[in-house]
Hints:
- The protein has 136 residues and is an alpha+beta fold.
- The chain has helices spanning 7-12, 54-59, 84-93, 117-130; strands at residues 16-18, 23-28, 40-44, 47-53, 67-73, 100-103, 108-113.
- The protein has four helices and seven strands, in the order αββββαβαββα.
- Strands 1, 2, 3, 4, 5, 6 and 7 form a seven-stranded antiparallel beta sheet that branches.
- β6 and β7 form a beta hairpin.
Amino acid sequence: MNAERDLTRLLAGLRPELDPGRYVFTTVDGPAPTGLAPVVTVAEPEGLTLVVRQEEADAASLPYDYVAGRITLRVHSALDAVGLTAAVARELADAGLSCNVVAGFHHDHLFVEHARAEEALGLLNRFAERSGGRTG
């Protein structure tokens, strides 16, 4: 399957999927502690940011202050596609939802406030439908 670059087709084909887990953002000095399976890592001068399941962070006594739901956009977006992140972030922002986006090779992953993750999923499904697509 080739990665999609056309914004209209990307939006119509979002097919957002909510992961049932709870995710947190934390940071460590040095490598990730043993036993963690981060879904995202970002190396910054201040430390290594980890996005991990909340239960893993709790077990490792790692601090966090944001609990997120993870929504994967099942459309296979090209890394050089223009406008997808902006359009999705705007849709969620208009509803007062923050959105932290991570681009993987095949899909974009949205981290939204866990308490509002189902609401975000509904908004994205309706957005895809308005864009001419199908959901689920």
